[in-house]
């Protein structure tokens, strides 16, 4: 069931997103080589609480951390640990805030220290594709317009979409309907029409390699690329209004 939000609810989400942006603005410059992902997570939780929210991810059953912190070939859902970040790693920080009854969700992939030229191009493709995809989140268009834009942006740059992992609705629950795939699996006119009140997390989840995934051994959450190629994720929560679309995060 798709839960369209009222203007009043979107205002609350807008404030929650503003606070989450402040968390990210303070958190990202502190991340450096030599830190453990547990240390990053601890700082993120401290900032979320300082900004008047709760960690959305801790509200997910059996997930006990405030962030998902994936490194290199890890794709999504990797819990923080004593893993040490090293120069040249790429790190995806996936983070959500629960504020006054509503969630917002955000992800960014960054390089730790040295940035190789091929990695710079890889990350830039994801950032640019997310921008283009958000431009398709317009009342009257369809979810398929978003999916097609993500697929074209990533594959034309020579990379692969992770088909099993998608964007999603956001609101009182962190994950709501509809799903927002990163590829087009059926004609656009058979996908959901975008209406005012729709709030979704648009996610670009992709890899340098073939795009096949597997669950990491001895970890109930972490998913990695099957061929161990680098993976990245860029995500914003957006809200559709009558005449415009607002990036909440």
Number of strands: 13
Quote the beta fraction: 25-35%
Anisotropy-based shape: globular
Would you state the CATH class?
Answer: Alpha Beta
- CATH architecture designation: Alpha-Beta Complex
CATH topology-level name? Creatine Amidinohydrolase
What's the CATH superfamily, by name? Creatinase/methionine aminopeptidase superfamily
Overall number of domains? 1
- Count of helical segments? 4
User: Percent helix among the residues?
Assistant: 25-40%
Q: Can you write the helix and strand succession as a string?
A: HHEEEEEHHEEEEEEEE
- Estimate the mean pLDDT confidence: 97
Radius of gyration: 17 Å
The unreliable regions are none
Largest sheet: 6 strands, antiparallel
End-to-end separation in angstroms reads 24 Å
Structural class: alpha+beta
